[in-house]
Design a protein that fits this description.
Layout lengths: L3 H15 L5 E3 L2 H8 L14 E5 L5 E6 L4 H4 L5 E5 L17 H6 L13 H13 L3 H24 L6 H16 L4 E8 L20 E10 L2 E2 L2 E6 L6 H18 L8 H11 L12 E3 L6 E5 L12 E4 L2 E4 L3 E4 L2 E5 L4 E3 L9
Parallel strand pairs: 3-4
Antiparallel strand pairs: 1-2, 2-3, 5-6, 6-7, 6-8, 9-10, 9-11, 11-14, 12-13, 14-15
């Protein structure tokens, strides 16, 4: 999980860049996760409700939040945590739940500085977006937790995805394996579906019954405290890929390796994309998805590894590379790994198997 020292360091870096003369009031869920580890469980009655983080120019921070939030809210790393009573279950509510934070906002200047219409919002978002690209050690540790659990789901899939089961059953099995690896439930979302080619490159699970010879794309994320993994394998149902299907996998593996060779700080994202596209050779026109993207609190997030990228990799970026080919009459296939960018290259963070069988 995120640490108190990590959160404090990020707040101080933020203040050093912003240089405010008055307290800064923040409410965007991503900002609160990043700066104090405040995270409301997505699967809960409080999923749509958040908090307020007040950061004084001297660095002191106070988190205000609805006391009915799950316990994860009260575990955030701020100098002070102030729960506000909305509804006790014994007396009527004190008012509209979304207004429970209003008094705290008014007491600290009446502005929320990362609300879309606040004059300071563009600067706040620009600073925090740039900061978030350079992951801190506690963030990387949390991402590795997500990835270890994600790998457990992929391992389950390689053993259990077979003709006769439904896409929904695959999702349930993968999620259960993830829960077991984490020791708790978590959000698991992504592509759990057969791809016939260009007409369907992904999607949520359906009642479709898997048939021998279909290509099943298993591309999903595990979310813990707002941070997430994201990596992919494609399996041939029944374990007997055609030569054409194997060619899709061989070309994608070649493209992934070519893109990874370009991963290091200072390299334009365009170069990594071009390396993958070139590796596909005469099949490049069937590479119709992006080549990768940043990963952390959002999915996707900068940098973007795409055909017309304008960004450059920096040390601390966590990125995915996800080459794939989608050929009608053969099937759609995608593979993906996650990487931490360093000054001299990269550390591969995902280690699942990428084969059709």
């Amino acid at each position: 999980m995120l640490t108190a020292d990590g959160c404090r360091t990020r707040r101080l870096r933020f203040l050093d860049r912003l240089k405010p003369t008055r307290p800064v009031v923040l409410a965007d869920p991503l900002h609160l996760r990043y700066l104090c580890g405040f995270h409301v469980d997505t699967i809960s009655s409080s999923a749509d409700f958040g908090g307020l983080l007040v950061i004084r120019p001297d660095g002191h921070s106070t988190l205000f939040y609805d006391h009915k939030l799950p316990k994860t809210g009260g575990l955030a790393h701020a100098d002070e945590r102030t729960p506000l009573t909305w509804y006790t279950g014994q007396e009527p509510e004190t008012g509209t739940r979304r207004l429970v934070l209003r008094a705290a906002a008014e007491a600290h200047g009446g502005r929320i500085h990362d609300s879309l219409t606040d004059p300071l919002a563009p600067q706040v978002f620009a600073i925090l977006s740039e900061m978030r690209r350079r992951k801190d050690p506690d963030e990387i540790a949390l991402l590795k937790t997500c990835m270890n659990a994600c790998a457990a789901g992929h391992a389950w899939g390689r053993v259990n995805i077979r003709p006769g089961v439904t896409e929904l059953e695959v999702y349930a099995g993968v999620a259960t394996a993830v829960y077991a690896a984490l020791g708790r439930w978590a959000v698991v979302y992504g592509d759990f579906t057969v791809s016939p080619g260009s007409t369907k490159r992904g999607g949520p699970p359906t009642p479709h019954v898997l048939e021998a010879g279909e290509l099943f794309i298993l591309d999903y994320s595990v979310v813990v405290q707002g941070y997430r993994s994201d990596f992919t394998n494609t399996l041939c149902i029944g374990g007997r890929p055609t030569p054409q299907q194997q060619q899709l996998m061989d070309r994608s593996l070649r493209a992934l390796a070519a893109g990874a060779q370009e991963l290091r700080a200072g390299v334009p994202c365009q170069r990594a994309y071009d390396a993958m596209r070139t590796a596909f050779g005469d099949m490049a026109d069937s590479f119709t998805t992006h080549g990768g993207h940043g990963l952390g609190l959002a999915h996707p997030e900068p940098p973007y590894i795409v055909r017309h990228s304008t960004e450059t990799l920096v040390a601390g970026d966590v990125v995915t590379l996800e080459p794939g080919l989608y050929v009608d009459g053969v099937g759609g296939l995608r593979i993906e790994h996650n990487f931490l960018i360093t000054d001299t290259g990269y550390e591969q963070l995902s280690h699942h198997t990428t084969t059709l069988v």
